[in-house]
């Protein structure tokens, strides 16, 4: 690894809504054509790019605030056509891809605000599922644990 300080930064959103007395969580099924995790279930998210902030006004020090938040909201809109309320930090995950690129994923959660689910070409199905139902789906490793963490925060 040449530069140990460089990471690809991604973010994910566990989107929830209250349905009667239970919470439901949005999961999406990845296209069968995807190189990574084809056909598995996950949550919306994607990578931060310089384009997410470079054309916006910077502060007097040349810094941009809330780039990850803006990027994640863009990804949610592109992938599932939804708007969410406040995004709250849940956890971070790091790993090194098979091609040697280190990845940092920032996981957030937020309440469904508006919109009807419309999937982009990267997903082939979606489901609003309770914590009990989610276990019936083949999710990318770790997603179920993250959803359980959110569920525990919401029921307290």
Characterise the protein shown here:
With 156 residues, the protein is α+β, with helices and mostly antiparallel strands. The chain has helices spanning 67-80, 131-134, 143-155, and strands at 8-19, 22-30, 41-42, 45-47, 83-84, 88-96, 102-114, 123-129. Strands 1, 2, 3, 4, 5, 6, 7 and 8 form an 8-stranded mixed sheet that branches. Strand 1 (8-19) and strand 2 form a beta hairpin.
Write the layout of secondary structure elements.
Blueprint: E1 8-19, E2 22-30, E3 41-42, E4 45-47, H1 67-80, E5 83-84, E6 88-96, E7 102-114, E8 123-129, H2 131-134, H3 143-155
Parallel strand pairs: 1-7
Antiparallel strand pairs: 1-2, 1-4, 2-3, 2-8, 5-7, 6-7
Strand-residue proportion: 35-45%
**Overall residue-averaged pLDDT value:** 94
Contiguous low-pLDDT stretches (5 residues minimum) are: none
Radius of gyration: 16 Å
Order of helices and strands: EEEEHEEEEHH
Q: Residue share in helices?
A: 10-25%
The number of helices is 3
Biggest sheet features: 8 strands, mixed
User: Strand tally, please?
Assistant: 8
Report the principal-axis shape: globular
What structural category do the secondary elements indicate? Answer: alpha+beta
Report, as a whole number of angstroms, the end-to-end distance. Answer: 43 Å
Structural features:
20% helix, eight-stranded mixed β-sheet, 37% strand, 8 strands
């Amino acid at each position: 690894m040449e530069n140990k300080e460089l990471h690809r930064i991604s973010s994910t959103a566990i989107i929830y809504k209250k349905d009667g007395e239970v919470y439901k969580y949005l999961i999406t099924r990845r296209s069968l054509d995807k190189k990574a995790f084809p056909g598995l279930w996950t949550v919306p998210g994607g990578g931060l790019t310089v384009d997410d902030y470079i054309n916006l006004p910077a502060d007097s020090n040349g810094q941009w605030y809330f780039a990850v938040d803006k990027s994640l909201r863009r990804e949610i809109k592109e992938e599932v056509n939804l708007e969410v309320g406040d995004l709250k930090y849940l956890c971070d995950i790091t790993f090194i891809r098979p091609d040697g690129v280190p990845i940092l994923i920032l996981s957030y959660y937020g309440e469904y605000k508006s919109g009807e689910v419309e999937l982009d070409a990267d997903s082939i199905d979606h489901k609003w599922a309770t914590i009990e139902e989610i276990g019936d789906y083949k999710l990318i490793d770790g997603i179920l644990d993250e959803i359980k963490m959110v569920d525990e925060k919401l029921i307290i």
